[in-house]
Amino acid sequence: MKKLSLVLAVLMCCGTTFGKKAPKAVKDLWPDGTEIEAWFKDTTAVKLEGLGKQYRVTDYGVVNDGRLHTKELQALIDKVAKDGGGVLVVPEGIYMTGAIFFKQGVHLHLKAGAVLMGSNDPSDYPLLTTRIEGETCKYYSALVNADGLDGFTISGKGAIDGNGYTFWKHFWERRSWNNKCTNKDEQRPRLVYVSNCKNVQIEGINLQNSPFWTTHIYNSEKVKLLNLHIYSPAKPVKAPSTDAIDLDVVKNILVKGCYMSVNDDAVAIKGGKGPYADAFRTKYEGVDMSKFPEMQGDGGNENIIIEDCVYGFCHGCLTLGSESVYNHNIILRRIKVSEANNLLWLKMRPDTPQQYEYVTVEDIEGNGKNFILVAPWTQFYDLKGRKTTPMSYSDHITMRNIRFDCNVFFNVKQQEDQYHLSNFTFENLDITAQKKDFHTEYVENFSVKNVNVK
């Protein structure tokens, strides 16, 4: 009996059971067929003790007294950076601040019950050259800023609160007498802005009530956003353009285990806009790009996974555009949705050459207005003197293993003079829709397998 047990143990260790090989693990692949790197599987939490010396902010003049402590916080960040790095620890309490700028080696940790509360005075956010709506321009800084850092982390169980009510109210007041008022007319700070960084991890905290975009990641790579609770209200006062996560010229991004409910897009993929915004990939003969300084910094997005998330109200669960030039290998999977306007939204700008390719949306349950929306997006339309409309393309778009209740199943506008759709796959879809019209002829090479629309 002991010998038999020993034989079975050896067989199991060798991957064999009674002469049969154990099935090989299925490789996790990008939509283009390449293998997803191991980096995306590592969701190890930030270890506070591994961040260096801990600096409790209340020991350095940052007090829960309702007054602004921007100067004290920035002085502490500067000191920690000068002394070789460490972590700012925010204890329970509400601490008011304007814009703060992190430096190399300095981290942020918010204890349970801690709230870093933003000022509602725009003068507490300096105007600087930054990245907004697909352009490099002057705009307010964010509340929390990290630029050019390697290894930056924000962690804990506390909150960063943008205190956005006054900003939202002013925006809608201005809209009431100027219905063409834009985000650049009524400027507002973002909550968290990470730019030109790598190896960033933001985890566990609440990001809430942002005056404008909540989390903006620009020109960065290897960024993980884990187990975040991101919220802004849609009523009684709408929080305008408070996107949960904006990914803008990025590579290797993981969004996992997050809750997102905001009065705009949950995850928006950006990267640039304008008639020559793809100059980073294409050389335009005879075009002086120095005449278009707002297009400096444009770029593509590659290797993005959004998974295991829960969505409350939002305009788009996954939105490509409106300022986006090139996106490759984008995955949205294993999510639950309620009250979304759109599950997948492809915004096609007629003034911008765009290419959206290898996008997969899979393993979804929920409800919303549109299962898929593809349509021209003309906000701030400007060909800047170009005589012809640049063509755009959406290619290898896959939606599979989805159970969804919606108003409109296939809300796709055919616009062949502006964009071309090809190689779409719909597979294993169980859809309940008020409007179930389905025009496969709008897409070149449309594969449909086991799609039930009732």
Question: What does this protein structure show overall?
Answer:
- There is one protein chain.
- By secondary structure, the chain is mainly beta.
- The protein is 8% helix and 46% strand.
- The protein has three helices and 29 strands.
- It has helices at residues 2-13, 70-82, 165-177, and strands spanning 16-17, 20-21, 53-56, 86-90, 93-97, 100-102, 106-110, 114-118, 127-132, 135-140, 144-147, 153-156, 159-161, 192-195, 198-203, 206-208, 215-226, 229-231, 245-256, 259-261, 267-270, 301-307, 310-311, 314-320, 326-348, 355-376, 392-412, 419-435, 444-453.
- The strands form three sheets. A five-stranded parallel barrel has the order 19-21-24-25-22. It has a two-stranded antiparallel ribbon with strand order 1-2. A two-stranded antiparallel ribbon has the order 9-10.
- A hairpin with a 2-residue loop joins β1 (16-17) and β2.
- The termini are far apart.
- 45% of the residues are buried.
- The model is unreliable at 1-19 (pLDDT under 50).
Task: Output the keywords.
single chain, mainly beta, 5-stranded parallel β-barrel, two-stranded antiparallel ribbon, 3 helices, 29 strands, 46% strand
Unreliable spans are: 1-19
Number of helical segments with 4 or more residues = 3
The overall average pLDDT, rounded, is 93
Radius of gyration: 24 Å
Assembly state (oligomeric):
single chain
Tell me the total number of β-strands.
Answer: 29
Strand order of the biggest β-sheet? 19-21-24-25-22
Structural class: mainly beta
Described by the principal axes of the CA atoms, the overall outline is globular
Q: Span from first to last CA?
A: 59 Å
**Main sheet: strands, sense, barrel:** 5 strands, parallel, barrel
Helix content: under 10%
Strand content: over 45%
